[in-house]
Amino acid sequence: MRGGSQSRLVLADDGNLWIVKFKNNPQHLRVLANELIGTQIADAIGLSVPVSGIVDVSQSIIETNPPQYMDLGPKRRELCSSGLQFGSQFAGGMISRQVDEYLADEQLLNARNLEQFAGILVFDKWTGNTDYRQVVYRRNGVERGYSAVFIDQGGCFNLGEWTFQDAPLKGIFAQKCAYSSVTGWGSFEPWLSLVEQFDPQSLWEIAEAVPREWYAGEVYELDKLVEKLIARRCRVRELIGQFRDSGKVPFPNWKRERLAVLPARILPCRKTSGVAALASGTGLQTLVKLSKPSADDPCSSSRLQV
Known about the structure:
alpha+beta, six-stranded antiparallel beta sheet, three-stranded antiparallel beta sheet, 8 helices, 17% strand, disordered C terminus
């Protein structure tokens, strides 16, 4: 696949196509953690993102069919890592022609979920995405038209730095027309309120499901990242305001009002000590997916199942 992480399109033993990012990708090891945390958060606030999970890739599949290498610089390459990697389901299912990487402005304005570009901006400002927003477009067969699918959360948390730069033009989408439906703060709902009121316990559970090998076992660094995310919930309006007031004038239809906008009240939380159990598989590419929480077991979202 195109892109700096040199991901691969693979057929897993669940019968689905998955885009897999490997631990020894050229960007950073933590990109895998960013992808899993970011995609789970975006899904939790109702944004259109691919199904994500953990894919177990055996050494034998790396060394054959043909051998899979990472290009790490001039005259330097190494085999892709085996073991647990990040995977996201290919947006087009089993038919590659169902997905386009670019739409002209006129087509984009007719996208069936155009309003979600405001929602993904909320997400990108909260998570400090330092990359331009990446999108693919899935064709709707029966109803026709396109729906945006927001991919590649690896640039969240400033890649491997796990810091927040918060520059006004970071994490934005390149085509300005995507924000044409924004007329005020109401255009960022329900996503803005969902972020400001995001349950801290849910954040801890998402983070605890990340394999330790994806952040070199630096639990303290992961804990600091989650604590920063919890504290940043009340800053998202400020960050969107900075983008609005930039020289790009991204929201031409926003009618400015001289009103004070107060963030939602954020309740303090405490971290629990639940630890996710990683499942291991014996197949060539065993898919391990996050389970949904159940009424009987509110902590079940931190478990993994084959």
